[in-house]
Amino acid sequence: MIEKMGYEWRLRQIMAEHEMFQTSDLGPLLAERGVSLSREQVYRLVTQPPQRMSMGTLDALCDIFGCTPSDLIKPMVGNAQVKKTAGGESAPLPLKERRTTIRRPGQP
Known about the structure:
Elements: E1 2-9, H1 11-17, H2 26-32, H3 39-47, H4 55-65, H5 69-72, E2 73-80, E3 82-84, E4 90-92
Antiparallel strand pairs: 1-2, 3-4
């Protein structure tokens, strides 16, 4: 097995630790730091792990909560299937090669 990396987005937990339970409370604090997000964007930021985020937003969140990026993002490790090599090391499963046949128009 090979370890596959993922992450846990901890913004909701950090907000709760600071007794902030409404996503609408976060918008004005972000705006004070120059980050303009819609109500819906703030809601998604709190409730879903972001696929991408600007450094300005990350910096503003760290400033608001007095934390570091590693407090907001907790790495998670999972397992994926791999093939064992002769030396005992693990290697990802290779792609299977497939022969192709070129057929010209009119040929079966």
